[in-house]
Amino acid sequence: MDAIVSPAPAKKAVPANRASAIDRHVGARIRERRIMLGLSQQQMADMIGVTYQQAHKYERGINRISAGRLYEITRVLNVPITYFFEGLDINEDDESMNPRQRMCLELARNFASISNQRHQEALSQLARALAVQQ
Fold it and tell me: What is the average pLDDT value for the chain, to the nearest integer?
């Protein structure tokens, strides 16, 4: 018999457009490159088809940048997309995740990296058995 798993505790809803540390890092890299090229924020905004205010919000990491817009920015600034992520600490904790969520994510990543299907099934059975004991 399968164990009933209780749902994760409810968390505050985080707006989908709320910027994170990664968004701030990307914005800072955009600003850095724009200044290196001698472009004003207004010139940059015109080149990527947004308002001055929107370009400012991108650079400050206030607003998230869509994939399509980031692609356009790479073309205007003449850099590969990886440029914007250089120097980013990929192990940096995401402030929107609690320790339990991080642990679950790590568990899922580790489980997915097990190539032997029998080992995956054994681990899954162990998790079910431990959950029933609770």
Answer: 82
Return the CA Rg of the chain. 21
Q: Provide the residue type at 7 as one letter.
A: P
- Determine the average pLDDT of the residues in 92-96: 53
Which has the higher per-residue pLDDT, 6 or 119? Answer: 119
Domain with CATH 1.10.260.40 in the chain: 21-85
In DSSP terms, which residues pair with 63 in a beta bridge? 18
* CATH class of the region 21-85: mainly alpha
Taking CA atoms, 118 is separated from 48, 106, 125, in Å, by 51, 20, 11
Beta strands in 10-116 (DSSP E): none
